[in-house]
Amino acid sequence: MPAQLDSVYHIARRFVLDKWGGTEAVVYNYCSQMMKNGISNHIYTTDIFCDKKEEDLDGVKVHRFSYIFPWLFLSREAKEKLKLKGGSPLSLPMFFRLLLGKRPSVIHTHVQHRLGGIARTVAKFKKIPYVVSLHGNYLTLPKSEATKMMSPFEGKLEWGKAFGWLLGSRKTVSGADAVICVDRNEYLKLKELYPKNKIVYFPNGVELDKFANKTADAFRNKFGIADDEKYILCLSRIDFQKNQRLLVKSFAKYSQTHPNYKLVIAGPITVEDYHEEILQDIQNYDLEDKVIIIPGFEPQDTMIAEAYAGADFFVLPSQHEPFGIVILEAWAAGTPVIASRLPGIQAFSHDQQDILHFTANDQEDLLEKMCQLDDEKLKSQLKTQASIEVKKYSWQALVQNLQNLYCELIEKKGDVK
């Protein structure tokens, strides 16, 4: 008899439309696809950037709770930076709601640290399985970026360590019933680190119908891109990981030989200082009339698909990347892609076949790949192969695999009805 999978509670650090990122997209698609299969899904998160405590997103129930950053002497500026990235918040209201509330079939946490410890503790108390998704950077975050993320805590006293110890935060990953990795490199490292644990490589997906067969007329009109102008698109969070400054510098040279091109950089700003550096680069290279910055779309905005559809090609210049959902979105829209040569991207894409890889952080190599796309035959080849490859990543098929994993874990716990 198959295990009864009725409801799943997802734990996320934050979940708000105007600060949408890859993790939020994954969680939302998990929920919306499973709901089509009759499985109730709830998202438990903090009220970072949104004071709406309860929200219904197309049937997906979102529950937000107050939180704190448990350090003494944090400045207001430091707290604002931590809201955008990092911070390991603590939410006791979330903990007690989960502990005293209904018993779901599975808890699936998309965050570690204290919130992950809450998921672990509640799952053990209710005797249900819990799953941890690692959305990249668990073992592979560059030291320089980790240092930047920890800078707000310099000289501060972390009194929240006691709660982390009580919740078993450090055991969130090692004690999980299953760990899901979207980064194949991280998956292989975890398999070595925890050989007895269930570690699963589970790539991200894309809504094929959302991006296929779109036109860009409304997008061009809204942002002042003429019909006889072409544009390059970069859609991702605006921060140092995504490395948009490298693209601006390469584009400065590219535009000298391609004067009818514009560059569109779109995405939520998660590091304001980095955004300011991009603006300064644009001014220094005299590109004010060539570069358009759009500070984010809401995920349901139809102009996201239009932006992809109208782009001559798409560039993802990240310094590190666990997967790269935006590559799948560009493929689904029929747009050629150039991306950094990184393990997470190489795990699902094939250089010179469905994508052009360039050496990460190499401005000249990126420029060379951009110029290669002057070759219309190469463009057509990339688009054709990508259209075949992207069909492997439909959310419908991926979520069915996830449901199968949940059922396997429920059976293992003995919760068979």
Automatic annotation (TrEMBL):
InterPro entries tied to this protein: Glyco_trans_1, Glyco_trans_4-like_N, Glycosyltransferase_grp1
Domain of life of the native organism: Bacteria
GO molecular function, one term: glycosyltransferase activity
Domain Glycosyltransferase subfamily 4-like N-terminal: 20-209
Glycosyl transferase family domain span: 217-385
Name the record gives this protein: Transposase
